[in-house]
């Protein structure tokens, strides 16, 4: 009894000791279950193969023996080697076929699993978070920012930029361009609103009288000093560029700083916090927007062309005004000329002229009223001409 009690205690101790090990080995047991199933299937397949081989061999021996009894009177010495070879080959083929069939029937359904790298999953999560933050910070609707006409002009400018400079190359990269272009339009409007708010908080009088005038005065003083120094040496002038313009690379670096400052001040905070996107926008603004714009504006030939174009437009507008009033002998002819015109600029110019004449006629009538002139007798036009009708 003592020995049995000691054995019972030892068995209990062994069971208690083995329980943690069993708990620790549960994942290993779970991982080993598929291997056990595969081994069972392989064992079953091997059994099927041996059974098929033996069956094929027996069938071959039976057939060969029957054939031998018919030819040689029951002698198996002639056909036995040949029958063994044929039986072995048939047993192998039949056994392999049955093994494959049994493995296919007993195996689970095939499932294709694609392992996505963790870096790709992290990138998708980052993009989704950034997109949600950006959409939440941008205004979905906006009212009049500056004025109705200026907002309409800015909207046309943004639409032209997207249609001409973004969609031609972006449509080859994506199937649907509408979501991206709408997001870009929202970002541009956000920048316009932000710039307008900052300009509204600026002291314009102090900027013009204190900042712009002082900078222009210093610039003219430097030009005068350079001319005097050049005349003293017999030269045309000695001008020294500012450090930011000493070389094209230093100019681009300065423009990059300006672009980075504008990105951090005018765009949403999500863009400034994203380093790759901030760098890309900085390079685009500095090298593709600011540098070509400065080169164009500082080109004397371009300035002269713009002046000549403006003067030609003014001259053409004056000629149109004189021709319209010259050939329109009556009010009906004047209306006909307006209806037949197809140039929007000409129509806008005519509209401004008509408004100016109406305002002038109203001012003259107000002066006559102030002088006490009775306007009731002069309300009816004296003639049918256009000038009489407009008075």
From TrEMBL:
<feature type="transmembrane region" description="Helical">
    <location>
        <begin position="47"/>
        <end position="70"/>
    </location>
</feature>
<dbReference type="InterPro" id="IPR003114">
    <property type="entry name" value="Phox_assoc"/>
</dbReference>
<dbReference type="Pfam" id="PF02194">
    <property type="entry name" value="PXA"/>
</dbReference>
<keyword id="KW-1133">Transmembrane helix</keyword>
<keyword id="KW-0812">Transmembrane</keyword>
<dbReference type="GO" id="GO:0035091">
    <property type="term" value="F:phosphatidylinositol binding"/>
</dbReference>
<protein>
    <recommendedName>
        <fullName>PXA domain-containing protein</fullName>
    </recommendedName>
</protein>
<feature type="domain" description="PXA">
    <location>
        <begin position="147"/>
        <end position="315"/>
    </location>
</feature>
<feature type="transmembrane region" description="Helical">
    <location>
        <begin position="82"/>
        <end position="106"/>
    </location>
</feature>
<keyword id="KW-0472">Membrane</keyword>
<feature type="region of interest" description="Disordered">
    <location>
        <begin position="372"/>
        <end position="391"/>
    </location>
</feature>
């Amino acid at each position: 009894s003592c020995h049995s009690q000691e054995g019972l205690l030892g068995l209990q101790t062994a069971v208690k000791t083995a329980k943690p090990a069993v708990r620790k080995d549960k994942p290993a047991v779970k991982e080993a279950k598929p291997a056990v199933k595969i081994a069972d299937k392989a064992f079953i397949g091997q059994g099927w193969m041996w059974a098929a081989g033996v069956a094929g061999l027996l069938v071959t021996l039976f057939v060969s023996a029957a054939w031998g009894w018919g030819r040689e009177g029951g002698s198996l010495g002639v056909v036995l080697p040949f029958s063994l070879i044929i039986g072995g080959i048939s047993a192998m083929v039949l056994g392999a076929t049955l093994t494959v069939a049994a493995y296919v029937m007993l195996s689970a359904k095939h499932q294709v699993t694609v392992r996505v790298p963790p870096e790709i999953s992290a990138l998708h999560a980052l993009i989704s978070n950034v997109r949600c933050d950006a959409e939440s910070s941008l205004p979905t609707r906006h009212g009049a920012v500056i004025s109705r006409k200026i907002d309409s002009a800015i909207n046309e400018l943004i639409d032209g930029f997207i249609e001409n400079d973004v969609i031609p190359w972006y449509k080859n990269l994506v199937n649907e361009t509408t979501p991206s272009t709408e997001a870009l339009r929202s970002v541009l409007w956000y920048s316009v609103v932000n710039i307008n708010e900052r300009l509204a908080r600026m002291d314009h009088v102090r900027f013009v009288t204190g900042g712009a005038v002082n900078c222009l005065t210093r610039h003219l003083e430097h030009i005068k000093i350079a001319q005097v120094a050049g005349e003293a040496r017999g030269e045309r002038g000695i001008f020294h560029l500012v450090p930011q313009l000493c070389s094209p690379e230093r100019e681009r670096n300065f423009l990059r700083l300006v672009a980075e400052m504008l990105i951090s001040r005018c765009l949403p905070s999500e863009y400034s916090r994203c380093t790759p996107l901030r760098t890309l926008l900085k390079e685009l603004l500095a090298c593709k927007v600011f540098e070509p714009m400065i080169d164009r504006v500082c080109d004397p030939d371009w300035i002269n062309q713009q002046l000549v174009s403006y003067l030609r437009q003014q001259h053409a507008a004056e000629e149109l005004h004189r021709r319209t009033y010259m050939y329109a002998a009556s009010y009906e002819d004047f209306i006909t000329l307006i209806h037949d015109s197809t140039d929007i600029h000409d129509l806008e110019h005519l509209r401004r002229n008509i408004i100016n004449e109406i305002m002038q006629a109203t001012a003259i009538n107000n002066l006559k009223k102030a002088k006490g002139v009775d306007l009731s007798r002069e309300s009816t036009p004296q003639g049918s001409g256009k000038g009489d009708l407009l008075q």
